[in-house]
Amino acid sequence: MRLKKFLCWMLVLIFVGSAWTSCSSEKESENNTTEQITEAVTGKDEDGMKYTMVSLTDSGLEISASFDVNGNICSLPYTRDDFAEVAETFAEMGISRVYAVTSRPGIVGSSSAPNQWNDPGDNASQTGASIIQSGDPNFEFVYACHKVGLEIIAVFKPYEGGGVSKGVDADLSNTLYYEEAMSEYWTGYDTFISSHPEMRLIRKSDPQEEAIVNDTITKIEAAFMLDAYSYKTWWRRNKTSPTINNWEVNKTPIKLYVSKNNVDYIEYPGSYEVKFTVENRKYLDENGWALFDGMSRCSVATIEGIEISSEYQCFALVMEDNTNRTIIAQSMIRAFNAKGEELPTTIGPYVRYKKGEYTIPKDFIWGDERTIAGSAPEALKYFESWGFDFDYCSTGVNHSLKFNNAYVYGVARGHFQYAKGTLCEVYPEVRQAWLDEVQSYLIMGYDGIEIRLQNHSFMISDYAYYGFNEPIIQKYIELYGQDPALSDTVSKEVAYRIALIRGDAFMEFCTAAAEMTHAAGKLFGFHMRSGMLDSEMDKVMNTTLHKCFDTSQPKFVIRDWKAVVDLCDTITIKECFANEYDGSLNRELTEYAQANGIKVWVSAYTQQTAYLDEDGVQVGECNSVFFNAVGKDENVDGIQLYEWDPTGVRFKYSFNKIQKEQNYIPREVNDK
Amino acid sequence: MTKNNVLKKSIRWVCLIMGGILLMMSVGCKKDQKPADTPTEKNGYLIIDIAKEASSQAHTFETIQALMDSYAQAGVTEVCFEPIPDTYAVTESCQGAVVCDASIQSDHMHRTVHAVFDPNLVFIQAAKKLGMKVTVMYHPYEGGGSVTIPADAKAQFSMASVTGVGGTASFCAGEIAQSKTQLISSIQAENPKLIGKGTTSVLEVVFVDEAVQNRVSQHEIATIASDTNAEIKPILWCSSGNTNYERVSNPSFKVTTERRQITDANGNDLGEKSCRVLKIDISSYSSSKYYAVAFENGNNLYTLPFSMINIYDKSGTVISTTKAVYTRNPNSDALLNAQKVPNDYIWGTERMPIATTDSTSLSTFPAWGFEFQYGGIGSDWGDGWHNAYVYGIATGVQSSLCGNLCEGFESVREYWLGQVDRFYAKGADCVIISLQNCGGMVYNYTDFGYNYTYAKEFKQKYGIDILTENFDYMKLMEHRGSYFLEFLRSVDQIAEQNQKEWGIELFSSFEKPTLDDDLNGLCHFKMPKLVFDWQEAVRLCDTVLIGDYQYGTYDTTTAAAIRMFAVEQNKTVAIMAYSECGANTSYLESVWSDSYIHSVFIDSKDVYFATLNGTAK
Predict the structure, then answer these.
(1) Residue B95, in any domain of the structure
(2) Do B485 and B523 belong together in one domain?
(3) Which residue of A188, A228, A374, B117 shows the fewest CB atoms closer than 10 Å?
């Protein structure tokens, strides 16, 4: 009933809203087919729940919904009836097409959502219960949708291969495969990776680093930026950080903690000295590439008089006062041995936690934890017991430059040997496994396949060092006459060339998948973003959120974006506009698609960005402003509501947050 | 051609001709009734039990496809999948359940499901990719609940459970959680006045003291007799929760001899005359919920425990009880002799229960307890005579069949239909409906089927109150069967909508229905105890599968009327070949010679490949 009720209101949202427009809309002109709709708060429903009516334009935009199969089955123990109820409600809303983001076999760990095999009584994850109750959820959803006449497209995310950390005392019996990294366990990989872990992107080998990784650490440096720098926010605004004068350098002590295995951090058992000096340093980004032409003025904190033996695999830098301490932690926090050699390290920008539990509860089941950014003051309360999530969200920063301003950073010895859950597409076996998965969705009855590159499995800050698999090296030598593995570092050009080789291999898969889909008489689609249209190396390798090399992307380059579009019957612009739709970003793409009869959908972030940006602006896109703006773009055929969560759990959370902070009256859903 | 071969060929021809004559005689059929297009080409279906495969190793997509590839390369073009029951409802033991514990065999099932989500779907897809014709054998009554765990224990991923005798019947189909009131219910549940309650005073165990006849196989009747010369000394144990039984020290007992009319597990007289029996009355023990009784000289005495072991209160009134001839079987041999159940034991991982005619049961039951009602009368043939090492006795009766949903409810039939429809959606070309199941194993089957709707309808139809009056149980079976036929009609419609085929598994016992609980009888523990108009079912379906268990020799008269009628109706006729019943080359050659058989379903790849190569298309 809870579900029904919520979705009934969506019916109100879509259709009653349309009816309402007839009396509240103002036509732009007599000949203009687009009507400007304003947002209306219409009051309370019969149960006293407030809601906002979000109206649609009458410009002919179609509305499709996407449904995150995985996100739903891990949150609630889904039965067949639940899938049927979702499908029925979508049908009642008048939606004719649904995009199902499929649940990858093997139960992949991604993001912070608990998604693993647990007994329902453990309360950590409902995925196992959902699978036992309803069988393959991907099948059950397509079955339910077809029963009510919905067209349903499988959104296949080949790079969502998993990879999550588990504390060292975790019960691993419920995993298909696990490995040791960062002094603890990593697991939650898809079925193919669990059988073929060696086919993931491999890190460039560095014997010298490997030789010293367990050396005693005698000195630690952290170089905080003092010069002003300009960057772009992920919501496309230019910003400049303030210059920090020498006299403004924050000299409050930095505390040093150590841990044997990334839980139970203790303050370094001995005395140590922290010095602050202002120095000019070459400032490097997370891949070790120079950020600026010249030197940068830095506040360098040096911790000396320490001897961190290999018994301690991790340490943490703790700053109760983080004022004026912005840093690109991945490159500018460095640990040295007695010889002055720099040890290889990995940064944990996020802290693990379970809300209100400052120590790990007895009999805690790993997988039930979440992550909190080190830049949140609460992180200081949790890190000692829970430890860090290394390379979570890569650098943990979504802007164009990865300057962080955290209270605490975790640092582990060494690097990930593999790019967590990212398979190397250059192996024919990998492409075949993906094709098999596409085929299985087609056999299940999906009416089409849409490829989405986004994933949570390549959260690696220095991504340029991954992709040194033998077939890639061979291809590199064949194309460029050099062995990229021979140099000590990886230049941007080498990383770009590797990305091109990988992109070519991916296109082989994509072409075969399109052929297979078309041979079955079904639709093929692709999720595009404007970054794909950039041809220059620096632009395409932009790591700002929603650009082509952001933390969610597999980080390869497709040489010709038109070649992708040519394979498609439908494309989705999967680019967060932060509630400010700008059709010009993808104009060339949408015009090309329209000219070739390819349907264009725009993804509207309805929940994940339903919050305020750093400037206090509402960036969620489930509102009439956004819908109307998209409706004016004549190259767009429809809006795809992003990962609609019919249970309303997250939806409610997001909007309640807005309501609290901005006195914004949101749409609400009932509790159970 | 050697003399031997000539001889063999001659014998085969003689057999074939005689078989044909017998067939004609048995169905009273005139020669010209034989249809013109009797089958000339045979085909064989390899039966693959997906639950067994999925729990035999940690499968992935690759290993499942590789397995099916190997079958295809060996020439298999038609497969019949025994699917994993809905929500992993168990069949004979917990081994088909999904339990996550790397130390036990059933963890393979967890790993397989974890890796591929739905093994049924993946096996079907793998076969379809190879162009195989896929048949799925659907068992609507396979709703789990055949085994129990202690009432205070919890089994991982048990999606539904039912309070049973001896504990909680776990690993029932998830649908049962939604509709417990729609299980087949017992007469005592509908009329609680029939339950004998009271404080136990005397436990009576009666053994037969003269020779009796008992069927021991399809073609064999044996004489059994107790050895009453040895000293008789009972041993008694008590338990409050059907685990951790405690021995009663020196209970008083009295041995007497008398004559008594023996009745079977359903209260029907066995033989026309009374029989000399040895009666042991055990007393001087405190009242408990569960008892176990054994005798120091072991298993040399015969009883029908279901009717010959009883508990009385002080007034001599019978207290309702349920008997067990199986014990639970822990998940490892190391635990078989455990004195108590270890605190960290993971319930729901038990192996196939151990018959109490096996001496192992004596060391197993004290810690682990019994499986009441398991296996019906405990044997596939005969009346249920036992010379067991130990018997379990529980006070109380079962209120429902823990894994059998009642076909009389429309929602139940819709649920089954949804399962059939999904098999088609997953890629099955044909779904065969099989009545066989392990979800309704009881010995006193005539006590079940009394759901309130049936009682009401029966009263309207026949003017009889089945809850209080004597009646012909076969009438109730027919009444239930009429609803099952409704389900089959719906299956026919669903199959037509999907443009697919369907079939029905029938047994020879449908031809002349009786209350027969032998292996091929309608009332064997694996059957749902109903009967319907089989001719109507045949008319509706595309394939008729004869499910009779035949040991060693193919009997051409088996289900002859059904087969003849099916061929007349231009239906495909198939027959089961069970490897456990000795299906072999000679058996299959006899099947091939039968002109009323189109296909054979073989449940063993070894038998399939040993017998089918070169003999079938």
Answers:
(1) no
(2) yes
(3) A228
